[in-house]
Design goal:
Elements lengths: L25 H13 L4 H10 L3 H7 L4 E5 L2 E11 L3 E3 L28 E2 L7 E5 L2 H18 L3 H7 L5 E10 L8 E7 L1 H11 L3 H8 L3 H18 L6 H8 L2 E12 L7 H14 L7 H17 L11 H8 L4 H6 L6 H13 L2 H16 L6 H19 L4 H14 L24 H13 L10 H16 L13 H4 L4 H9 L2 H16 L25 H7 L11 H27 L10 H5 L3 H45 L1
Parallel strand pairs: 3-7, 5-6, 6-8
Antiparallel strand pairs: 1-2, 2-8, 4-5, 6-7
């Protein structure tokens, strides 16, 4: 079997025809395994790679003259060869899925929870190790990764015609279990190329979980599977095969860059798993194939947490391994509580803000090191660090809200702007004033400290104090993540023309006044209790509507209250109409979110949309559509009246102008 470059294409133009496959001799496989073991790979990894090689003799010869691939922090040694597709599985923690992951801290079930990122395997060789609770966790993750990748990056038609053209980066990975008597397998995963191998498995009808647990450690079954396809060609001949079988034969092997060694730079001290991630970052996070912006920030977030958690020669680790997992959102609420972390989401948000953005230039350097390790971006901006912090903060929120874009996107945008508050850089680098694991002040003491700062004039036309800033960070979290956002990027709708202040400007105005500090405190209290946000007066007492209910805290109300004007409940005229219009637009937005959320309900855990599969009762749909049509016609009438009124005013103005000319 030869590389695709040496294979002759079909003369009739129907696709690539590989040269006949030959099942390798066992002695050749054993000799390659011995040679790989001599290169520093573990016995298990050497056996897995040798079994996977299409031409073990050729791969063994190439070991004498490996290719060097430079990445940030070191040099990876690779051998270019072909591997049997059944021996390779997608990366179980593939970064392409950032932005759609379900995090434990957000309430994800065990079946949907992401796995931790692989670490270097013990022994110092070019291998990774991943620890999972049980074989079922990895099996589910591998199959889920394949399903998502096939759906989001479909390549099977192209591969069926031409095979895999670009080589995959393949790395051995040892699997360890927290609780299982099973012997842990050593898998060959794609550090780069998970979409390609997933498309190959789709063509061949392979489930990655079965490859990992039925073929990875069973040489006899593995060779039987390969030989099944070889005999098919031998029996029928290529031209007699169906188009579907020809497509499968083209996918039976894949070109690969197999990692067989790693040498870190003398001064960098980079570990193997970081070098592999650096390669992924240089391949995907930066051009030519960048991920989406939110995905990029999430990937950078993990790199930053790694940088903060690892000590250097001159500095201790900035965060503990437990804090790293808490910030990453990969532990449950119960596990977080057992580690002594606060159960309140605003405290976690503030801790992430303090850790990633506070502490001055020292913290900025550490964070920038993490960003550069993934992207080679030489001068990350403060906005980059803010975006990373926001994505880490939103991980459990996105999971709890099923990652509904209409909910997540506007809140991401507001948090990114609000947390650019310059005063955040002056937050203490060692601990929060309130909510720290080892004690600290109470929320009431934080409020009182912020009131004192406001009384001293901090924030009035200048910068907020430390307590005001911390309270602002915590209140912002709940104001933005509330169902009705109490803080937006700029004034929304008609209010935008009257108040175009940024979120930072609104926060400063709010926290510089006694009533604003009290309001921020009540926001945090209500948020921690899971209650709706409502307006309070100078003493913290609720303000009621004419109907006797709490007055809901909205962006328009916050902007109006903290702009030097008294807010009264309008009942006549344009102000009253605008207030009702705000209710209309809010109801429309709620309806859109409800429809989107209903559409995303799975038919079963881990399954596709129930609505797409079964639809909904037509009489109920018809009834809802009649109401919506009636409302739509009413709104259209309003627009016609507006246009007619404006036309009359324009005509009247034109007549007046002509009369003036006649005079």
């Amino acid at each position: 079997m030869t590389d695709e470059a040496n294979a002759e294409p079909r003369q009739d133009g129907t696709g690539w025809q590989p040269e006949p496959y030959v099942l390798p001799r066992i002695t050749a496989v054993d000799k390659l395994a011995d040679a790989l073991f001599g290169k520093g790979l573990s016995e298990e990894a050497a056996e897995s790679l040798a079994r996977a090689a299409v031409q073990p003799e050729d791969m063994r010869r190439k070991l004498a003259d490996v290719n060097n691939l430079r990445v940030q922090g070191g040099t990876i040694h690779i051998v270019e060869t072909r591997l049997w597709s059944a021996a390779v599985v997608p990366h179980p923690a593939n970064p392409r899925e950032y932005g759609r992951r379900s995090y434990a801290l957000g309430g994800a079930s065990a079946a949907l929870r992401i796995l931790p990122m692989p670490e270097p395997a013990p022994g110092g060789g070019p291998e990774l190790q991943i620890r999972v609770p049980h074989p079922n966790d990895l099996a589910h993750r591998l199959d889920d990764a394949k399903a998502r990748l096939v759906k989001e990056n479909p390549l099977d038609n192209d591969i069926a015609a031409e095979g895999v053209l670009q080589p995959l980066m393949v790395v051995p990975m040892m699997v360890c279990y927290d609780n299982s008597p099973n012997r842990p397998p050593t898998l060959l995963i794609t550090a780069d190329g998970s979409s390609r191998i997933s498309a190959v498995h789709q063509l061949l009808g392979y489930r990655p979980s079965l490859l990992a647990y039925e073929l990875a450690d069973n040489t006899r079954k593995f060779r039987q599977e390969i030989n099944r396809w070889i005999r098919l060609v031998q029996k029928q001949g290529w031209d007699s095969l169906s188009a579907a079988d020809q497509g499968k034969l083209r996918a039976l092997t894949v070109p690969a860059r197999v990692v067989v060694g790693f040498v870190p730079d003398a001064r960098a001290g980079v570990r193997f798993h970081t070098a592999v991630r650096n390669f992924i970052g240089l391949t995907h996070i930066r051009p030519p194939r960048p991920y989406a912006s939110a995905v990029e920030s999430e990937a950078k977030g993990d790199a930053v947490l790694d940088s903060l958690a690892e000590p250097t020669r001159s500095r201790n680790a900035r965060i503990t391994s437990q804090e790293k997992r808490w910030f990453a959102g990969v532990i449950t609420e119960q596990e977080a509580a057992e580690e002594g972390f606060s159960p309140h989401q605003d405290v976690r948000a503030a801790e992430i803000i303090r850790t990633v953005l506070g502490g001055g230039t020292g913290t900025a350097r550490r964070v920038n090191e993490g960003i550069r390790s993934l992207t080679a971006q030489q001068r990350p901006k403060r906005e980059d660090r803010v975006d990373i912090a926001v994505e880490l903060i939103l991980r459990p929120v996105r999971t709890a809200k099923n990652d509904v874009p209409p909910y997540v996107r506007p809140r991401r945008a507001v948090l990114q702007r609000a947390y650019r508050l310059p005063e955040i850089e002056e937050l203490p680098a060692d601990a929060l004033l309130e909510g720290a694991p080892d004690g600290g002040r109470s929320l009431e003491e934080l409020r009182d400290a912020a009131l004192k700062e406001a009384a001293e004039g901090l924030g009035a036309g200048g910068r907020l104090g430390v307590a005001q800033t911390e309270l602002a960070v915590k209140a912002t979290f709940y104001m933005v993540t509330a169902d009705t956002m109490a803080l937006q990027t700029e004034g929304s709708g008609a209010a935008r023309a009257e108040d175009s202040r940024s979120a930072v400007g609104v926060l400063r105005a709010m926290l510089s006044r006694q009533r604003g500090v009290i309001q921020a405190y009540e926001v945090v209290r209500a948020g921690r209790l899971g209650r709706p946000l409502h307006e309070v007066d100078e003493d913290g007492a609720p303000i009621y509507t004419d109907g006797g209910g709490y007055r809901e805290l909205t962006d328009a109300l916050v902007r109006h209250t903290y702009n030097g004007e008294a807010l009264t409940e309008a009942v006549v005229g344009l102000p009253a109409a605008r207030a009702h219009w705000a209710t209309v637009t809010k109801s429309v937005d709620n309806l859109r979110q409800a429809v989107s959320a209903m559409k995303s309900v799975p038919a079963y855990e881990g399954g596709g949309s129930l609505i797409k599969r079964e639809g909904w009762d037509p009489p109920e749909i018809e009834k809802a559509r009649r109401y919506l049509d009636k409302v739509s016609r009413t709104l259209a009438d309003w627009a016609d009246w507006y246009n007619a009124q404006n036309d009359e005013e324009r005509q009247s103005a034109d007549v007046d102008a002509m009369d003036a000319l006649d005079v």
